[in-house]
Description:
Number of helices: 11
Radius of gyration: 19 Å
Helix content: 25-40%
Order of helices and strands: EEEHEHEHEEEHEHEHEHHEHHH
Distance between the termini: 35 Å
Strand order of the largest sheet: 3-4-5-6-9-10-11-12
Shape: globular
Amino acid sequence: xxxxxxxxxxxxxxxxxxxxxxxxxxxxxxxxxxxxxxxxxxxxxxxxxxxxxxxxxxxxxxxxxxxxxxxxxxxxxxxxxxxxxxxxxxxxxxxxxxxxxxxxxxxxxxxxxxxxxxxxxxxxxxxxxxxxxxxxxxxxxxxxxxxxxxxxxxxxxxxxxxxxxxxxxxxxxxxxxxxxxxxxxxxxxxxxxxxxxxxxxxxxxxxxxxxxxxxxxxxxxxxxxxxxxxxxxxxxxxxxxxxxxxxxxxxxxxxxxxxxxxxxxxxxxxxxxxxxxxxxxxxxxxxxxxxxxxxxxxxxxxxxxxxxxxxxxxxx
Length: 316
């Protein structure tokens, strides 16, 4: 029996739409039109971040959509993220204010600590290790909690946090993280982290749910996996649809990226059908490999992490 999965309920009681349009690495002067097209297709969840450099363009697109009556603000879920150079507690509210100004909104539905990594104030990009500093995640989290109290971030959470790092926050949190957004797809299923999040009432949201096939540096083969393709062929679906539907049935929201309307429609057409249990079980046998390793945040001298293993606490 097909199970419709349009939303997941967070620990705040809010319902996060199960499929988002991801906006990282999208070219400027393209992303505004892509967001508008996605909303017309039916998406109601937009995932962005300060680091993506596109919040102003998305804000302009949203304003036009609201003014045209295409969609109402209360029907959209907007996620953004705190960049690594704004971790100091006094910088956290300023960072959100800049994001809200760029998006032309009075609140975001979800605000995440983008990485468990801190950088010197004003630093952007990934290619200057001397900008890496020692993170103080607990004090950053306390500043995030104040944003939740203010109502300007209706939910707060983390991104790229290992089981241990999420556990460290949970031990001291007054406001429990609502979400941990991490790489998650059939070739990187993260069963330990998934079980921990489920046990603690933290929703797992999966970025790169198709393995980021458009990112040359990652050399992704996720959608070429023979098991995934076998399931797709048996169900008359695309490999991308199987990868995304796998995420929904695992209990994750998924954040596929595309600026192509035909692919938006294909990626969104995963809500109201199911992968049968026997085929779903086959997907658990896929060989596992992390794609996003976070190597720019690892350095022998600067920052907190000397190895990739330290960054992910062995979950690699």
